[in-house]
Specification:
Strand order of the largest sheet: 3-2-1-4-6-5
Number of domains: 2
Oligomer: single chain
Distance between the termini: 90 Å
Radius of gyration: 26 Å
Strand content: 5-15%
Length: 517
Amino acid sequence: MGTTQLRLAANTEFGIRRSSIILLLILLAAGLCSALHAISKPFWYDEICTVILCRLPSASAVWKALGNAADSNPPFFYLILRWTRHLVPDDHLGYRLPSILGLLGTISCIYVILSRRVDQLSAFVGATFVLCTPLASFAYEARPYALMLGCISVATLAWQRADDSKLYFLLLTLALAAAVSVHYYAVLVWPAFVIGEASVWVFKRRFRIGTWVALVVSTLPLLFFAKLLFNLRQYYGQHFWAHISVGQLFLVHDWLFNVGGYWGWTFAVGITAIFLYLGIAETELLVWSGQRQPKESVLPIEEQVLILMLLWLPIIAFVAATVSHGGMKDRYMLPTVLGGALAVGYLTSKVPTLLRTLLLVLLLMTYGLSSVGVVKSALQGSLLEPRAAATSQVRDIVAEYSESGLPIVISSGFRYLPMAYYAPAGATRKLYAVADPRAAVTFTGTDTIDLALLVHRRYFPLQVEEYGNFVSSHREFFLVSEGGDFDWLPARLSHDGHTVRLLSAGTTTVYKVTLSP
């Protein structure tokens, strides 16, 4: 019995109809849990940057704001969110809906990709694996990471089936172009596709001109957005907050696969070793048998290469960030999760059915347990309490300290923006943020938040003042501090010899500041 026949026989284990029902149930569960999280969770700093851009009156206004470095994503991302917000009345769900769809698209594509190579049960294991990674959390954020991964998953599916129809070349082009049009760092996956396609040429002696054209054409959006990227680089300069390090290369897999103790890196090394072993074993069998052409492999060599390239995408990211002197965070490397999921699905097909079933149940239980709290709050009618708490926190601070008539300064700009967003009507004008990029670099090593707030105040009603202007107008004020990497103001005031008197301590610390002459 040939490899294809074995695969088709294995796929009857579940049956096409039963498999479709199971996939639909998984998607419904993931979509429902993500939607509940989206409705419940307050926006954080980065998401509010998204909302500020999406609320601008027109697409040209969005483009102009991005030209002024108001945020770091391509315009297409904000246009998508503006559209979904009009479809959904609730802001928190409307702005996060594309991320939910990105997660569901990723799950579906991984399942379809794997089901062509392995049995349905193993394909389900690979598809649900992503629910136990950080991608599940990014599915309810108004940021482009889940949507980007959904586009890359579609591109992977189209690339796998490029020989089936010329339409897949078009789909590959559109999917990769869409990925880089919602997040610039999607370009990191291009080397993976290029080397994967090169392996088709090297090992199978086939030059697929349609695929190469798709890979080239899909990068054109970067040329279109080149001026926006240049302005970002010029504005934020060399003190951008996110810099990659060599140590991050050994830790990023732990974060991407939700493990600790370097097990993520060990997982990536182990998969690489297994794939290399299988490739060498197949080559030796070919030599000893005297065959000129290899038999059809369960997982073609080009797909093995693509999986390994995605799995080691952090190395590509490190090289790119080092050469360009750009910023890099773990979440920019999320496409690695796609490589891990495909590898897990393939390797799972090598174990007994009982073990595959147990692994699938464990993955679904792990994801389910992570959503128990939000489902319980929905059933109890308290789903909106976290959002209400964000508002009440600001209300309580303003109520306690506003009677004196002194300004209330939120020490960290990272905390000021969410507090200003959730402040009750009339309270926003009593809250201030003080920006001083030079002092921020001195005391924290980065001026990203200060520079960003100075831009955001043009497009959103914020009371952000430069340090010199503020201290010349206000000799006394209250300072609200929650600490954190961007909270430089208390250190600056103490360094300059001003009086900083503690009023209350706890999660939120409040001082009364009296400036020296």
